[in-house]
User: Fold this.
Amino acid sequence: MFTRFTQPSRRSFSDLSEQEILALAISSEEDDARIYAAYADGLRDEFPDSAKVFEGMQAEEMEHRNRLIDLHKKRFGDTIPLIRRDHVRGYFTRKPDWLVRPLGIEKTRKVAEQMEADAERFYRVAATRVTDADTRKLLGQLAAEERDHESLARRLGDEHASEDVQDAEAAAEHRQFVLTYVQPGLAGLMDGSVSTLAPIFAAAFATGDTWTTFLVGLSASVGAGISMGFTEVASDDGVISGRGSPMKRGLAAGIMTTIGGLGHALPYLITDFWTATIIAMIVVVVELWAITWIQNKYMETPWFRAAFQVILGGALVFAAGILIGNI
Assistant:
């Protein structure tokens, strides 16, 4: 009854037979080919040239697989043992392609280079574990091909995705990042930071009670975040505008709206009114500076114009809150 606890769930690589090493190599090449095919499929619509890179890498992995199968048939026959990466202790793992998504150009190329490095290390170690001359020769050849002066991803990239194409794809990826995350997130941060100034400071100067002010700020921030998130999701499905997933945009807008409001609400957890108010004012300045910086960096708005817009709007709302609070 204690067998499952006393016996290891995985085999040590040093315990594998030569047939099992070949079987492990075959299944690994098959898995890598499927991963590259998934990358190609995920990139094909937006980055067709880079998709060709991964199609070429898939073909390369299948060619390795076929050579390994031919050798296995020659030495051990047609029946290949079922042994996979997760059956071997200490063997490298692969992330499913859905964990790597969204598929960015640089991310997938770096993953591909790491996959090649892992495969090269495996073949190099495996070659030292076999005595058959043909098997050792093939494993050594595959190790050499995996480490061939430049990575396969880079070599195929030179062929299918020139520097100009890669620059264009990087620009398109950056634009998509701005449209999907930065733009709705910036709108949320501005809304949360500016629109909550009036209710929070109005409550502060009307009541003089820090806890009440915090509750007003918390409710205003969370409510505004929920409202902004749902508005963003409902306003555009992203199909025609190309702004990306409405859920991602909604989360970016909702979370940043809530953060923008909570920034100057949290200081009112401090019981001393003026200490909390002064800190809240400092936080507001930091928030307005952050909004200006994001506008300048990602939206290419000139510093002076961005600062003028943000500071003027924030000052007007801040003044309105204090005036209303003192009525």
Q: What stands out?
A: DSSP finds 13 helices and two strands in the chain.
